[in-house]
Design goal:
The chain is of the alpha/beta class. It contains 14 helices and twelve strands. The protein has helices at residues 2-12, 32-47, 53-64, 70-85, 102-115, 122-140, 144-155, 163-166, 174-185, 224-230, 233-254, 268-275, 290-294, 296-303, and strands spanning 23-29, 67-68, 97-99, 156-157, 194-195, 200-201, 206-207, 222-223, 259-265, 284-286, 314-322, 329-337. It has a three-stranded parallel sheet with strand order 1-9-3. A three-stranded mixed sheet has the order 10-11-12. The relative contact order is 0.15.
């Protein structure tokens, strides 16, 4: 979802003659819960007023926070109900959303139905989350201070020698305590009214989000002055989110027929080899860290034929490298430009 906002935002800043005639995104996830949630987030990003701080707060909270206020919960439920009752997603309702087929739409609709009216006890959800994270911490041999350190190490750019003073791990440092608050509470706010249903595994109603997930990492790094001016990490992130949403909506308004987002479920490699029609190719393919699970060569063999045959097309490969976890954990991104596999 962030890739869509970033890409459309960047495209909106180009001169009219330099903009792509159309932008077609295809998002796939093996887990249909992620697809159903992405549809809601994209809908909200395309319809809120980014100049109203309450609207940006709403998008931020349903996207990242485990706990919601009563008002945000009620507003989210209205959107979920509208999705459940919606017969189709097409040009007639000016939606940029599309689904792989009617089966995927019905699969998502079943998830939305489960989330509609779901009102779990927030304390129980928090206990469920903390239990899952603690199990992973014991298994991998790390603690909350390690997680905070990893976020801090990515936080700043520019003047490195001032990082320690700005993000020193002390209780009096508001930036550090904000990071720690996220890992303890699963939210960037102190809301305690309702549990966010879209972060709950449907049907079994359990917390299954990744133990290392952190809302801030999507917007890093920051300039020192940017962080100090905003006063908090959350405020700095929301400022960037507001700009992305505003530019996304500007492009969507002026190019409504040229912007399409198609949601797919199922195995990513099967999608590349046989899911798309034979002539479907792409300028950019972002594989996330699928290669960590199934191997780099498998990803390249299946994705490469789907890449357009010109010099600027590329496959973006992400690797989450686990060394000795308490010491070092890094996210590496490699870009492979279009070429024959024998030359990679």
């Amino acid at each position: 979802m962030r890739n869509i906002l970033f890409t459309v935002s960047e495209m909106s800043q180009r001169k009219p003659e330099e903009r792509a005639r159309s932008l077609n995104f295809h998002l796939n996830d093996y887990d249909p819960t992620v697809v159903a949630r992405n549809a809601i987030i994209l809908e909200v990003a395309g319809t809120i007023n980014p100049d109203i701080s309450e609207d940006i707060d709403f998008l931020w909270n349903i996207w990242y926070n485990m706990a919601l206020s009563e008002s945000h919960y009620a507003r989210l439920q209205q959107i979920i109900s509208a999705f459940v009752d919606k017969n189709s997603f097409d040009d007639r309702d000016h939606s940029c959303l599309r689904f792989q087929d009617s089966d995927v739409l019905e699969e998502c609709r079943d998830i939305w139905k489960d989330w509609r009216g779901l009102d779990l006890d927030l304390k129980s959800v928090k206990e469920d989350r903390n239990k899952l994270i603690e199990e992973r911490r014991r298994e991998l041999g790390f603690n909350i201070d390690t997680q905070c350190l990893l976020v801090r190490s990515q936080m700043m750019m520019g003047i490195i020698d001032e990082v320690d003073s700005i993000l020193s791990p002390t209780p009096s440092n508001s930036f550090y305590t904000e990071i720690k608050h996220w890992f303890i509470e699963g939210s960037t706010s102190d809301e305690s009214d309702k549990a966010n249903p879209t972060l709950i595994r449907p049907f079994i109603h359990k917390w299954k989000q990744h133990y290392g997930a952190c809302a801030f990492e999507s917007y890093l790094p920051f300039e020192k002055q940017e962080l100090l001016r905003c006063g908090s990490i959350t405020a700095a992130c929301k400022e960037r989110l507001k700009l992305l949403v505003k530019r996304y909506q500007q492009y969507k308004k002026s190019h409504s027929a040229a912007l399409k987002v198609t949601l797919w479920t199922g195995d990513a490699l099967c999608l590349c080899t046989s899911g798309f029609h034979p002539g479907q190719t792409f300028d950019i393919i972002d594989t996330s860290n699928v290669s960590d699970h199934i191997g780099l060569l498998n990803v390249l063999v299946c994705c490469s034929p789907r890449l357009k045959k010109y010099v600027d097309s590329s496959i973006r490969l992400h690797f989450v490298c686990l060394f000795v976890f308490p010491i070092k954990r890094g996210l590496k991104i490699a870009t492979v430009n279009h070429c024959d596999l024998c030359h990679i």
